[in-house]
Amino acid sequence: xxxRGASPVGIALLGGANAGAATGRGAALLALGGVALLxxxxxxxxxxxxxxTTVLWFAYVGQAWNVMMGFSGLLSLGHALYVGxxxxxxxxxxxxxxxxxxxxxxxxxxxxxxxxxxxxFLGFRFGVKGVHFALLTIAFAxxxxxxxxxxxxxxxxxxxFLPVEAGVSDPLNLRGSPLLFYYVILALTGAALLLARALxxxxxxxxxxxxxxDAEAAEAVxxxxxxxxxxxxxxxxxxxxLGGVFQAFYFNNLFPEQVFSxxxxxxxxxxxxxxGIGTLIGPILGAFILTPMGEGLTxxxxxxxLELPGLKQLFYGVALVVIVVFRPxxxxxxxxxxxGLVRANAEGEDAR
Amino acid sequence: MSTALLTVExxxxxxxxxxxxxxxxxxxxxxxxxxxxxxxxxxKTTSFNLIAGVFPPDEGSVTLKGxxxxxxxxxxxxxxxxxxxxxIVKPFGHLTVEENVMVGALARERSxxxxxxxxxxxLERLEMADAAQRPARSLTLPDRKRxxxxxxxxxxxxxxxxxxxxxxxxxxxxDRMVAVLxxxxxxxxxxxxxxxxxxxxxxxxSDHVVVLDHGEKIADGTPPEVVSxxxxxxxxxxxxxx
Lengths: 352, 242
Prior knowledge:
The complex is a heterodimer.
Chain A: H1 8-14, H2 24-43, H3 46-72, H4 80-97, H5 101-125, H6 130-148, E1 160-161, H7 178-200, H8 203-213, H9 215-220, H10 225-251, E2 253-254, H11 256-259, H12 262-275, H13 282-304, H14 311-326, H15 331-339, H16 348-351
Chain B: E1 4-15, E2 18-29, E3 33-37, H1 44-52, E4 59-64, E5 67-68, H2 74-80, E6 82-84, H3 97-105, H4 112-125, H5 141-154, E7 159-163, H6 171-188, E8 191-195, H7 199-205, E9 208-213, E10 216-221, H8 223-227, H9 230-241
């Protein structure tokens, strides 16, 4: 079994902003991947495009979640809350007030940030830490799930629907073909990657990492823990809410049981865990591993005619156990080292 | 004697009835090195934590150059000009040595690049430049102790609190650290308050020594005065040599 200490580059990747900087080969591969995704709709059929859209959506929200857990060490198991708030806020603005999603997204993000900061305030002000903080995040997501069932203005448990007009292409209102949505989520994923990278290299980013590594030591070198953690929650919840806006306008229907579900929160955190918590590429790679595997499994079940409810969940469970046991730092640090995609700058671990 | 940089006045702290620090008063004159010594459990680290704002005192006050620090949080105490190390070292393990020191430098510096340059200069100064790109968790204990000092110094303190930075070091390493500390004090005028068990270093470095026992100050004077004090010999020095 590989433990953390035994994988130098893994450490470098989990490590600071500068650790594990991309080599020429790594940068080239990233660019190649980006171009491939840009050109994918030329060859992908409708189904493949929908799978890619799902992959990118999880890569995006995984990146958002990573800002809290990976950068700042704050475990949120209730990120479905921010997805749901973003989705419902933008959908309500659109349906009830005719406000387009791009403008609505701003308010949706504000709502999610308010919720996140509320939870953060309770947690950080009263010293709720680690697992207990995670429980707090679950509790709020569950309250929202149950609560939204009873808000008739938002459709209640019967669901909230956005009007769909066939053949309309109106990018300004996020109405249009799957192709439009594909490029929107691709742009969001790219932007989130760039934003996360910029944050990681900023003063705030270093302070987040310090808080993640040792809060007491961070405070002793002048980091205001409350502010650092609150900004992490704010950034993460705002980004996640944007993912919710996308979801609302992509699927055109929202059910509290689905959007706010515990299962959804877990689905959001899996890509980053599988790909590598605290790494920039991890959530993206994790999404590209998990979603296609899930789709493949669904396909196999259909082909074989087997009816096994819950098998997909079981599969996710097994996949997670395998990753946690064999690649506790995630797949990306290991892959990057094997393929020489990052500079190994942690020789000290071996030299010791 | 020069003016007081740090003034500790009637400081008291109880933990569930146990008096950890009791009515402690002393001053650290500007530009000097003061050592806080005493047997284990005498309240030395508690005193440090009270000064650094880890928890508030039950009674008493701490002032730095006339500014009252009592009730401030650790990050505010740092901003006021006090840098500290931890007895149990607390490196940012997954970050590189350079990044560790950068975080310290970012306390007063907004630019990441300037902070990086400052970190490099400090590491050079503490003879750790070779380890700059290694993850902090890969360092040996003496290097981790030096990293603690480097990170605290990066916050550009006027007063440096050192909690047993020499403990566990080999004699040659102690000598190196003593030289570095003396240099910092003489050349940069950094005032130092150190908790230390290594008496050789205490005698070599400090201008003044405060001795604690059971949370109370039992002696206060120059190193030669203190080591010849019967109470100190009985409670601390004698006990060790016995």
